[in-house]
Amino acid sequence: MARQTGRYVLWTPVAFIAGIGSYFGLPIEPAWPVFAFGGFVAVLVLALRLRMHVPFVLLMIGVMAAGFVTARLRAVLVAPRVLAASTGSVEISGWIDRMEMTSPRRARYYIHLTNAKGIRPDALPDLIRISGKKPPKPLVYGDTITAKARLFSLPTPVTPGGFDFGRRLWFQSVGATGFVFGNITLTGKRPLSWSDKLIAGVQRLRQTMGVYIQAALPGQTGAIATALITGERGGIDRKTRDLLQTAGLAH
Protein backbone atom coordinates (compact mmCIF):
# COMPACT_ATOMS: atom_id res chain seq x y z
CA MET A 1 0.00 0.00 0.00
CA ALA A 2 2.90 2.33 0.73
CA ARG A 3 4.00 2.07 -2.90
CA GLN A 4 0.53 3.22 -3.98
CA THR A 5 0.79 6.50 -2.04
CA GLY A 6 -0.13 9.34 -4.37
CA ARG A 7 -1.90 6.97 -6.76
CA TYR A 8 -5.09 6.48 -4.78
CA VAL A 9 -6.99 8.73 -7.15
CA LEU A 10 -6.55 6.09 -9.87
CA TRP A 11 -8.64 3.69 -7.79
CA THR A 12 -11.53 6.15 -7.49
CA PRO A 13 -13.26 5.23 -10.80
CA VAL A 14 -12.69 1.54 -10.06
CA ALA A 15 -14.46 1.85 -6.71
CA PHE A 16 -17.24 3.96 -8.24
CA ILE A 17 -17.85 1.36 -10.98
CA ALA A 18 -17.78 -1.39 -8.35
CA GLY A 19 -20.55 0.45 -6.50
CA ILE A 20 -22.62 0.66 -9.67
CA GLY A 21 -21.99 -3.02 -10.40
CA SER A 22 -23.03 -4.02 -6.89
CA TYR A 23 -26.42 -2.35 -7.42
CA PHE A 24 -27.09 -4.18 -10.68
CA GLY A 25 -25.82 -7.44 -9.23
CA LEU A 26 -28.47 -7.54 -6.51
CA PRO A 27 -31.27 -10.08 -7.08
CA ILE A 28 -33.91 -7.72 -5.64
CA GLU A 29 -34.44 -3.97 -5.44
CA PRO A 30 -33.17 -2.70 -2.06
CA ALA A 31 -35.43 -0.62 0.15
CA TRP A 32 -34.98 3.16 0.22
CA PRO A 33 -33.28 3.16 3.66
CA VAL A 34 -30.37 1.26 2.06
CA PHE A 35 -29.85 4.08 -0.45
CA ALA A 36 -30.28 6.71 2.24
CA PHE A 37 -27.56 5.01 4.27
CA GLY A 38 -25.32 4.75 1.19
CA GLY A 39 -25.77 8.45 0.49
CA PHE A 40 -25.01 9.28 4.11
CA VAL A 41 -21.80 7.24 4.00
CA ALA A 42 -20.68 8.91 0.76
CA VAL A 43 -21.33 12.42 2.08
CA LEU A 44 -19.73 11.64 5.45
CA VAL A 45 -16.54 10.32 3.87
CA LEU A 46 -16.34 13.31 1.53
CA ALA A 47 -16.80 15.72 4.45
CA LEU A 48 -14.10 13.94 6.46
CA ARG A 49 -11.80 13.93 3.44
CA LEU A 50 -12.07 17.70 3.14
CA ARG A 51 -11.09 18.17 6.80
CA MET A 52 -8.56 15.45 7.52
CA HIS A 53 -6.66 12.48 6.14
CA VAL A 54 -9.02 9.56 5.52
CA PRO A 55 -7.70 5.97 5.35
CA PHE A 56 -7.63 4.59 1.82
CA VAL A 57 -10.08 1.76 2.56
CA LEU A 58 -12.64 4.12 4.10
CA LEU A 59 -12.31 6.50 1.15
CA MET A 60 -12.95 3.67 -1.33
CA ILE A 61 -15.99 2.55 0.68
CA GLY A 62 -17.38 6.07 0.40
CA VAL A 63 -16.77 6.14 -3.37
CA MET A 64 -18.44 2.72 -3.76
CA ALA A 65 -21.43 4.01 -1.79
CA ALA A 66 -21.60 7.00 -4.14
CA GLY A 67 -21.61 4.67 -7.17
CA PHE A 68 -24.33 2.52 -5.61
CA VAL A 69 -26.58 5.52 -4.94
CA THR A 70 -25.87 7.06 -8.37
CA ALA A 71 -27.00 3.87 -10.12
CA ARG A 72 -30.29 3.95 -8.23
CA LEU A 73 -30.86 7.64 -8.95
CA ARG A 74 -30.22 7.04 -12.64
CA ALA A 75 -32.75 4.20 -12.61
CA VAL A 76 -35.35 6.45 -11.00
CA LEU A 77 -34.77 9.31 -13.44
CA VAL A 78 -35.12 7.21 -16.61
CA ALA A 79 -37.83 4.82 -15.36
CA PRO A 80 -40.44 4.49 -18.14
CA ARG A 81 -44.05 3.43 -17.94
CA VAL A 82 -43.86 -0.14 -19.25
CA LEU A 83 -46.51 -1.94 -21.28
CA ALA A 84 -47.91 -4.67 -19.04
CA ALA A 85 -48.79 -7.19 -21.78
CA SER A 86 -48.48 -7.61 -25.52
CA THR A 87 -51.33 -6.44 -27.74
CA GLY A 88 -52.94 -7.42 -30.98
CA SER A 89 -53.25 -4.95 -33.83
CA VAL A 90 -53.89 -1.47 -32.40
CA GLU A 91 -54.23 2.00 -33.85
CA ILE A 92 -51.56 4.25 -32.40
CA SER A 93 -50.82 7.94 -32.68
CA GLY A 94 -47.92 9.99 -31.40
CA TRP A 95 -44.88 11.92 -32.48
CA ILE A 96 -41.44 10.91 -33.67
CA ASP A 97 -38.49 11.08 -31.32
CA ARG A 98 -36.05 9.65 -33.86
CA MET A 99 -35.79 7.26 -36.79
CA GLU A 100 -32.97 4.81 -37.50
CA MET A 101 -32.43 2.89 -40.73
CA THR A 102 -31.90 -0.84 -40.13
CA SER A 103 -31.66 -1.84 -43.81
CA PRO A 104 -32.21 -0.15 -47.19
CA ARG A 105 -35.96 -0.83 -46.87
CA ARG A 106 -36.58 -0.99 -43.14
CA ALA A 107 -36.44 1.52 -40.30
CA ARG A 108 -36.73 1.61 -36.54
CA TYR A 109 -38.89 4.33 -35.00
CA TYR A 110 -38.84 5.76 -31.49
CA ILE A 111 -42.29 7.25 -30.92
CA HIS A 112 -43.80 9.21 -28.04
CA LEU A 113 -47.32 7.78 -27.80
CA THR A 114 -50.28 10.07 -27.31
CA ASN A 115 -52.96 7.43 -27.87
CA ALA A 116 -53.33 3.70 -28.49
CA LYS A 117 -56.76 2.20 -29.04
CA GLY A 118 -57.65 -0.21 -26.26
CA ILE A 119 -54.91 0.89 -23.85
CA ARG A 120 -55.85 3.07 -20.89
CA PRO A 121 -54.06 6.45 -20.78
CA ASP A 122 -52.58 5.62 -17.37
CA ALA A 123 -51.10 2.38 -18.79
CA LEU A 124 -49.79 3.93 -22.01
CA PRO A 125 -45.98 3.89 -22.40
CA ASP A 126 -44.62 7.32 -23.15
CA LEU A 127 -41.89 6.08 -25.53
CA ILE A 128 -41.99 2.96 -27.72
CA ARG A 129 -39.63 1.45 -30.27
CA ILE A 130 -41.22 -0.12 -33.33
CA SER A 131 -39.91 -1.33 -36.69
CA GLY A 132 -41.51 -0.86 -40.07
CA LYS A 133 -41.06 0.03 -43.71
CA LYS A 134 -38.79 2.86 -44.73
CA PRO A 135 -40.96 5.96 -45.27
CA PRO A 136 -40.91 7.81 -48.62
CA LYS A 137 -39.39 10.77 -46.78
CA PRO A 138 -37.36 10.56 -43.53
CA LEU A 139 -39.39 11.30 -40.39
CA VAL A 140 -37.76 13.71 -37.96
CA TYR A 141 -38.20 14.84 -34.38
CA GLY A 142 -41.65 16.31 -33.79
CA ASP A 143 -43.44 14.76 -36.79
CA THR A 144 -46.89 13.52 -35.71
CA ILE A 145 -47.95 10.13 -37.04
CA THR A 146 -50.60 7.43 -36.97
CA ALA A 147 -50.10 3.74 -37.66
CA LYS A 148 -51.50 0.28 -37.11
CA ALA A 149 -49.05 -1.69 -34.99
CA ARG A 150 -48.60 -4.62 -32.67
CA LEU A 151 -46.92 -3.83 -29.36
CA PHE A 152 -44.94 -6.09 -27.04
CA SER A 153 -43.82 -5.75 -23.46
CA LEU A 154 -40.06 -5.46 -22.93
CA PRO A 155 -38.14 -8.68 -23.70
CA THR A 156 -36.42 -10.75 -21.05
CA PRO A 157 -33.08 -12.59 -21.40
CA VAL A 158 -33.27 -15.60 -23.72
CA THR A 159 -31.09 -17.68 -21.39
CA PRO A 160 -30.45 -17.39 -17.64
CA GLY A 161 -27.75 -14.78 -17.15
CA GLY A 162 -27.92 -13.80 -20.83
CA PHE A 163 -27.86 -10.27 -22.18
CA ASP A 164 -30.94 -8.35 -21.04
CA PHE A 165 -32.18 -6.33 -24.03
CA GLY A 166 -35.22 -5.30 -22.02
CA ARG A 167 -33.05 -3.67 -19.38
CA ARG A 168 -31.09 -1.78 -22.04
CA LEU A 169 -34.35 -0.47 -23.53
CA TRP A 170 -35.65 0.36 -20.05
CA PHE A 171 -32.62 2.57 -19.43
CA GLN A 172 -33.38 4.31 -22.73
CA SER A 173 -36.84 5.08 -21.26
CA VAL A 174 -38.49 2.75 -23.80
CA GLY A 175 -41.63 1.12 -22.42
CA ALA A 176 -42.62 -1.20 -25.30
CA THR A 177 -41.43 -2.60 -28.62
CA GLY A 178 -43.34 -3.74 -31.69
CA PHE A 179 -43.78 -3.53 -35.43
CA VAL A 180 -45.97 -1.64 -37.88
CA PHE A 181 -48.54 -3.14 -40.24
CA GLY A 182 -48.25 -1.32 -43.56
CA ASN A 183 -47.00 2.25 -43.60
CA ILE A 184 -46.70 4.98 -41.00
CA THR A 185 -48.87 7.97 -41.89
CA LEU A 186 -47.47 11.46 -41.38
CA THR A 187 -50.24 13.71 -40.05
CA GLY A 188 -48.46 16.95 -39.21
CA LYS A 189 -45.91 18.57 -37.00
CA ARG A 190 -45.87 18.97 -33.23
CA PRO A 191 -45.35 22.57 -32.04
CA LEU A 192 -41.64 22.83 -31.26
CA SER A 193 -39.90 24.89 -28.62
CA TRP A 194 -36.46 26.35 -29.36
CA SER A 195 -34.80 23.33 -27.73
CA ASP A 196 -36.99 20.96 -29.79
CA LYS A 197 -35.97 22.82 -32.96
CA LEU A 198 -32.33 22.38 -32.04
CA ILE A 199 -32.82 18.62 -31.53
CA ALA A 200 -34.71 18.35 -34.84
CA GLY A 201 -31.94 20.24 -36.65
CA VAL A 202 -29.24 17.94 -35.29
CA GLN A 203 -31.25 14.86 -36.27
CA ARG A 204 -31.78 16.15 -39.81
CA LEU A 205 -28.04 16.80 -40.10
CA ARG A 206 -27.23 13.27 -38.91
CA GLN A 207 -29.72 11.73 -41.32
CA THR A 208 -28.39 13.77 -44.25
CA MET A 209 -24.81 12.83 -43.43
CA GLY A 210 -25.81 9.16 -43.23
CA VAL A 211 -27.48 9.29 -46.66
CA TYR A 212 -24.38 10.82 -48.27
CA ILE A 213 -22.01 8.40 -46.54
CA GLN A 214 -23.97 5.31 -47.57
CA ALA A 215 -24.32 6.63 -51.14
CA ALA A 216 -20.52 6.90 -51.36
CA LEU A 217 -19.80 3.72 -49.38
CA PRO A 218 -22.57 1.16 -49.95
CA GLY A 219 -23.03 -1.95 -47.85
CA GLN A 220 -21.55 -2.62 -44.45
CA THR A 221 -18.58 -0.33 -45.11
CA GLY A 222 -20.96 2.60 -45.28
CA ALA A 223 -22.94 1.34 -42.30
CA ILE A 224 -19.81 1.23 -40.13
CA ALA A 225 -18.66 4.64 -41.37
CA THR A 226 -22.11 6.07 -40.58
CA ALA A 227 -22.00 4.59 -37.08
CA LEU A 228 -18.56 6.08 -36.41
CA ILE A 229 -19.42 9.54 -37.74
CA THR A 230 -23.07 10.02 -36.77
CA GLY A 231 -23.63 7.42 -34.05
CA GLU A 232 -26.36 5.74 -36.14
CA ARG A 233 -25.78 1.98 -35.79
CA GLY A 234 -29.03 0.72 -37.27
CA GLY A 235 -27.48 -0.16 -40.64
CA ILE A 236 -24.96 -2.62 -39.17
CA ASP A 237 -26.28 -6.13 -39.74
CA ARG A 238 -26.09 -8.95 -37.20
CA LYS A 239 -23.16 -10.74 -38.90
CA THR A 240 -21.02 -7.59 -38.86
CA ARG A 241 -22.08 -6.81 -35.30
CA ASP A 242 -21.08 -10.30 -34.16
CA LEU A 243 -17.67 -9.92 -35.84
CA LEU A 244 -17.13 -6.57 -34.12
CA GLN A 245 -18.10 -8.06 -30.76
CA THR A 246 -15.69 -10.97 -31.27
CA ALA A 247 -12.91 -8.50 -32.06
CA GLY A 248 -13.81 -6.38 -29.03
CA LEU A 249 -14.72 -3.39 -31.21
CA ALA A 250 -18.52 -3.33 -30.78
CA HIS A 251 -18.34 -0.25 -28.54
Commentary on this structure:
The mean pLDDT is 81. The protein has three domains: 77 residues; 111 residues, Beta Barrel (OB fold (Dihydrolipoamide Acetyltransferase, E2P)); 59 residues, no CATH class. It has seven helices and five strands. The longest helix has 23 residues. Helix content is 42%, strand content 22%. A hairpin with a 4-residue loop joins strand 1 and strand 2. A five-stranded mixed β-barrel has the order 1-2-3-5-4. The chain has 251 residues and is an alpha+beta fold.
Keywords:
251 residues, alpha+beta, 5-stranded mixed β-barrel, globular
Strand order of the largest sheet: 1-2-3-5-4
Number of domains: 3
**Helix run count:** 7
Largest β-sheet summary: 5 strands, mixed, barrel
Instruction: Give the helices and strands as they follow along the chain.
Output: HHHEEEEHEHHH
The percent range for strand residues is: 15-25%
Q: Any idea of the CATH topology of the largest domain? A: OB fold (Dihydrolipoamide Acetyltransferase, E2P)
What would the average pLDDT be, to the nearest integer? 81
Secondary structure category: alpha+beta
Number of strands: 5
At the first level of CATH, the class of the largest domain is Mainly Beta
The portion of residues assigned to helices is 40-55%
Q: End-to-end span in angstroms?
A: 34 Å
Low-confidence stretches: none
Computed CA radius of gyration, to the nearest angstrom? 22 Å
